[in-house]
């Protein structure tokens, strides 16, 4: 496996472990609670991370079908248990690892198209684009770094929200902050 791919997977797996450890002491109502109406719940962030990983790694790089409804990641208010969210994250990761393990050195310089649904694209960029304008082109090597950074950013939010919801006095991720 390529060194860059190994590093990306290692980092994302570490972040996934932190997410799971952070979620363990919480119940389903806490997973879906929001500190403010304008903020995301842990459940929303989990859906968003899985959606982003699927869109970029499984669909764009791996050629899998594009099935993401990005807006729903942020508007869902429950109905998915903590265990189901964790399984969704881990199943997505397993599928992504399979795809990434097949990448070659030449693939890292290859461009891929990342597709978005029209409604999500227009809402995200605050534009009125046409259907054929709802994609961006990225080089795989740079995309891997961006996806890992995005994952770490939201993993940190999940850790913080977990600590705010249930402060056990312990370092739930195993690190001292």
From TrEMBL:
Pfam family, one: DinB_2
Entry protein name: DinB family protein
Coiled coil: none
Domain DinB-like: 13-158
InterPro entries in the cross-refs: DinB-like (IPR024775), DinB/YfiT-like (IPR034660)
Native organism: Paenibacillus medicaginis
Signal peptide: none
């Amino acid at each position: 496996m390529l060194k860059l791919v190994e590093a990306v997977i290692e980092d994302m797996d570490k972040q996934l472990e932190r997410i799971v450890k952070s979620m363990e002491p919480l119940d389903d109502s806490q997973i879906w609670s929001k500190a403010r109406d304008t903020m995301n719940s842990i459940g929303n962030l989990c859906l968003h991370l899985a959606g982003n990983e699927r869109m970029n790694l499984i669909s764009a790089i791996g050629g899998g079908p594009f099935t993401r409804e990005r807006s729903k990641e942020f508007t869902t208010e429950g109905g998915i248990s903590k265990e189901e969210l964790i399984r969704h994250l881990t199943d997505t990761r397993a599928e992504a690892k399979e795809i990434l393990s097949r990448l070659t050195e030449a693939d890292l310089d290859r461009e891929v198209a990342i597709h978005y649904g029209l409604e999500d694209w227009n809402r995200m960029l605050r534009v009125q684009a046409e259907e054929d304008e709802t994609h961006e082109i990225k080089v795989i090597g740079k995309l891997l770094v961006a996806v890992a950074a995005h994952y770490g950013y939201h993993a940190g939010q999940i850790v913080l929200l977990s600590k705010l919801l249930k402060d056990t006095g312990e370092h739930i991720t195993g690190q001292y902050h």
